[in-house]
User: Fold these one by one.
Assistant:
Number 1:
Amino acid sequence: MHEMSIALAVIEQVERAAVEHGARGVESVRLLVGELAGVVPQALDFCYELACADTVLAGSTLTVESVEGRARCADCGHEWAVGMPPDLGCPGCSGARVELLGGRELQILQVRWAADPVLARADQEG
Amino acid sequence: MCRTVDLQQAVLARNDDSAQELRTELAARGTIAVNLLSSPGSGKTELLERELALARERGVPVAALTADLATENDALRLGRSGVPVKQVLTDGLCHLEAVMLRGHLDGWLPEEARLLFVENVGNLVCPASYDLGESLRVVLASVTEGEDKPLKYPTAFGLANLVLVTKTDLAAAVDFDQAAFLANVRRVNPGVEVVLTSARTGLAVGALLDRALAVLAGEPVHRPVMARPAGHAHQVPLVEHS
């Protein structure tokens, strides 16, 4: 299970962004996960919660937006949902020049910082 | 302070960057890495041992690094070929990452080695997501595992540059449906080359070495559909919302 490594990579990047933005807490993190990314959202959620403990992300929620796998044939222009397990051969012309339009995403979309930055700043100074 | 920030960062960006750096470093010294993925017990070590011995016979300078959660058994087996071999213990981690691999190569990878075979942890799920800086990714599947492996592990098979079927000497005994297996591979990875091998009978032993040498010589590798995203997700500058 590599979801723990993925959770740790997410946390590391959000921690770095928190330092850059002077954020003291994180409310939520939005992820984009393609259905061909090889990530199990439930396992990721479980690992995320464990790995967030004692970090600036403690108590934050993880929202996963999934992206359907879609492909397009460069030869005949046919576009289709590849499904799972994916069918990546063009059903229209069996051409070999198929490109993936989406489905392998594994991206941090957005981070929402915890409220009350004024109080946080006062804490820092005091 | 703004409450939200659009990071738009690839989660595995750090691994992908390290992998690219390693690929460039290896290329600069005239070496390529070959990443071998399979489930446990697929016969990866057996076949690799034969390929390494053949490389030594032919005077091709190679080295091999093998990763496991525990035991040094594979390094002992591969070491019998007489080529430089290193065992990496991942301490429970189910896959290798580019930074880890790079650390293990430092001070070990012999200067003369032109091919570096990396035997990944036996697992068809997690290693698939991690680029190790390889120039050739090979997925192995034994006939005893069944024909539907490519459909069960589409990311692993879908990102392979080459597929090797192992233990084909057992095909009849386990009623291996070769046509079904090939159809399943082509479904997730149209156009990928599939080579039937047997370390026991010697069938196509040397195919892996030959393909790796061809890539080293600059021959283009098969680019899987899954590795061909139409629109790359570029890292965009931070956008803040208030």
Number 2:
Amino acid sequence: MIAPGSRAGARRRLTDRVMGWVCLAAILVAIAPLASLLGYVVVQGAPALNWAFFTHLPAPVGEPGGGMANAILGTLTLIGLASGVGVPVGILGGLFLAEAGDGRLGWWIRFTADVLNGLPSIVVGVFVYALVVVPMHRFSALAGGLALGVMMIPLVVRTTEEMVRLVPSSLREASLALGIRWWITSLRIVLRTATAGVITGIMLAVARIGGETAPLLFTAFNNQFWQAGLDQPISSLTVQLFTYSIAPYDDWHRQAWAAALVLMAITLLLNIAARAAGRQRFTVGR
Amino acid sequence: MPRSRGGRGGDVGFRVLLTVFGVAVIVLVAAIACVLIGAAMPSIRRFGPAFLWTSRWDPVHNVFGALPFVFGTVASSTLALLIAVPISLGVAVYLVEIAPAQMSVALSFVIELLAAIPSVILGLWGIFVLAPWVRAAVEPALAAVLGWLPLFSGPQYGIGLLAAGIILAIMIIPIVSSVSRDVLRAVPPEQREAMYALGATRWEVISRAVVPYGRVGIIGAVILGLGRALGETIAVTMVIGNRPQIPTSLFQPAYTIAAVLANEFSEATSDLYLSALIEMALVLFAVSLIVNALARWLVARVTSHTRVVR
């Protein structure tokens, strides 16, 4: 090695310093779009946000005002439908992986869940289109909910598995030693202990599917009025936001920013709350 | 076993129930494959493999070739990787090797928030903030310096392949950097200590011991990012320009498979048209399956090994 104070040593120390700054710069470049985006959504969205946005139907083109009440209700409906599919399948699938999934079958399920998680959401939309929309001959809330539900499954499966694995095995053993049957132990002791973590996972999944647009374009489609039933097209905040932002009207653009602000607030709050709850659980668990 | 006393039936039933729900995940992915293959059959029969390398997209005459979309998907994803990989690596190295622990936690959190931003909101920002900036600042600068290359020539719209690449890069930085971060964290401390003992500087340790050790996992992270970029839909649809042509310059509009699905799927008029679109979804499905499997395998090779050590 080169003695300190030599020219080569100085060059090495300079390289070290410079590369440290380069890495810091990478962080700043990665965060800059987030800062810009948050800034724009708040600055553009806040003035456009008013009471009518939450209570009125969209106004026809050319008429000012109007809101996205139907889209907000639609998004909530879709999240409800999706949870009906994604939560039970996800929790029981995750429980299987944690409690009985150490074998080859468990490995394949875990692998498939990860693949499903990485599947482009639009592909899931096309799948549900061919499976539900074509036979029903119409776009519907059910189809949209199913598409989002399919996307929830891998997320809930994997978080449930992780959370259930965190439950200390002494708890399991104590319960079994008292003669309580395994299935009751699993549901009432193990799963119950992991409840906070499982809910965290569900919240993250809801935050993710609540912001999805692509699979809804040809499953739930869109609807400018109040929803007419689960077998009818339904509006959602994201599809409405998409439609409004690519339209040429200034008034719609303002509404799009307002919708973005609402959607972003919901998404970020769910994420932050879920992570806070998750971290707390983790440290308590230790 | 004591637990079986009086409860065999319930336990067996419960195990069967759990297994059914576990297996449901596999069945679901298999069902997606079957449904897509079935619905794409008319197009597969009609055009054969040439579907992928012919470029005439003409719904009026029922002639469909996917090349412009395949090209646009590959080009925009490649561009995204070129932008995102160096930045993500810098981020991962900074988080693991340089930043103090608490700052690392906070910064990781912020970067992960970026992943939580809905695609459609990034698209909105892309239309009204990014694209005008690209048109006014990035494209003129690139043209001034590299304009002699055909890749950086032509009219500057803002909307186009370059904007799509930047949006995709923003969207994949969180995943590439967080997986790389986990990979670097899994590098055993002995690797570092040995280099430091030889008198190496921190950067020399990072560039010659830590990163090479995690190379396989980092490649996995990059492939994972590629998988995300290939399938990203809404934000790309909003800024890429949606023109079914093969662009010769980064400034030109293009089209991707995911974007054409988003735009044309609900208005496909003929059965063959619909089938051709579904065949493209099938292509996307197959590619993301392969890419994800490969990436998971590479990342698991690095991180699971160290979990055993720990």
